[in-house]
Amino acid sequence: MEDHRRPTDVSLVFPAHPLWVRTARETVRTLLAASHRPELTDIAVLLTSEAVTNAVKASAGWGRSTPVTLLVGWSGPRRFRVLVHDEAPGFPGLRTPGADEEGGRGLQLISNRADAWGVCGHGPGWGKATWFELGRADLAG
Fold first, then answer.
1. Given pLDDT bands bounded at 50, 70 and 90, which one contains residue 89?
2. Which of these, 67, 75, 81, 115, could form a disulfide with 136 (CB 3.0-4.6 Å)?
3. Cα 111 to chain center, whole Å?
4. 36 vs 34: CA distance, rounded Å
């Protein structure tokens, strides 16, 4: 019989600074290691990096020092969920960047690689949250 218990969900609140992207990635990596789900690690870390980077850039572009919140955990026995909240106004849009553009591919990557994803107005304060889930494809297994 498979054990579906998972380590406790994790929340992390940090300044909107690029140095914190690494901490967010390592938080996700550590929780997945503790959960014995190494097959989700590479994609979860990559998508977390994209979502946190977007939140940091949105917050910096707003010109106010507001925190970014990372909520990570299990939304079901096999569904790993990452939610990144920032207090900057406006919602990000999915777009196709030009070949010469260095950025603009984060949401595109999330939409292509996550089992589910979205942007919503939920979270610990003003602003919006970008979330994604992984692991839904193996629910029958």
1. confident
2. 115
3. 12
4. 6
